[in-house]
Write a structure and sequence with these properties.
The structure is a homotrimer of 138-residue chains.
Chain A: H1 2-17, E1 26-31, H2 36-52, E2 57-62, H3 78-84, E3 90-95, H4 96-101, E4 114-116, H5 119-128, E5 132-135
Parallel strand pairs in A: 1-2, 1-5, 2-3, 3-4
Chain lengths: 138, 138, 138
């Protein structure tokens, strides 16, 4: 009886006691910079995090001038992005408003790169769902 | 009768069917930069978000050198700020410590711009209340 | 007996039940910059916040090039860091991956500076625990 009680208490408290599971790793990166050093930094972080935690959910949201990282003729990291997109837990999402402001058509984006209607709302939504937030600027 | 029934069912289910309500959009922008390109960026984001979501709650907290965006003699966006402040869901708050550090008096701020005792605490409070966070830097 | 049991359970669970206390000021600063102006800014913010709120929990997580702020031969703020570390609520944590990438050994860090295996995970964890997040860039 006492043993059962102990088990019940431990089970009840386990969410507060047990360490974070390795799969509970969700981060949204906010990229607004056209600086290719920032592009290389965010790619390096994605590589490092996903190598150690293949189940980590990682999303890069680009607005402002961030789209430069994922357009065919301007990206300095197209191969790295193609490789990262082999991991279904990683996504790249560009703000449609930013594309329109800069006269960039969706067809100019690298394969696999998605668009969202509003990049800032996408980031807010992710934060609301418990994702971590990182401003990607070096 | 059937029509009324249908309307009733749709109304009842609407919270589960309709996309996220426009009113659940709350973001605090963190501005520490004196770079006028950053000032123009944050104003453009505020304009775009509020045009599509007039009910969105948006707040810009300025500390460090961010106050330059909202002082009478330095702001490059005074008219845009005046227009944005017509929306009661938008506010601009400057850190009183930053003003003191830079010998700027509250009277030098653009009309409608508020102060807070501690800009970092203001941002922490908003995050704690479930607001999204965006570092405003281009 | 039952009453004692109840009291014990309530006391044990109180950290999860009771409302936030006024000392509830917890912020993680994300520093990736090698720019000494950013280093001076984050130190100034730590000083100002901790002076007014000695109980505030403040942590600076450095990855990317942020480690430059806390290495013996490069830091421009070693004395300020030593003073801040007298407050047990303040900590400086460097990403071990960033150190390795830059061939910096832990022995080159200023006294009291800690390392974490993954700086981005450290920031995510803190955000998940309800800490505020500030990207430290001027």
């Amino acid at each position: 009886m006492k043993k059962n009680m102990l088990i019940a208490v431990v089970l009840f408290l386990s969410p507060f006691i047990l360490p974070a599971q390795t799969t509970d790793y969700k981060v949204v990166f906010d990229l607004t910079s056209r600086d290719t050093l920032d592009h290389k930094s965010v790619i390096r972080w994605l590589n490092e995090v996903s190598r150690m935690n293949p189940e980590a959910k990682l999303e890069v949201v680009m607005y402002g001038q961030g789209f430069n990282m994922v357009t065919r003729d301007r990206s300095v990291v197209p191969d790295a992005i193609a490789t990262l997109l082999n991991n279904k837990n990683i996504s790249f999402k560009v703000c449609a408003i930013a594309l329109k402001n800069n006269n960039v058509d969706k067809s100019q984006l690298l394969p696999g790169v998605e668009t969202v209607p509003d990049g800032i709302y996408e980031i807010f939504s992710k934060q609301k769902e418990g994702w971590g937030y990182i401003k990607a600027v070096h």
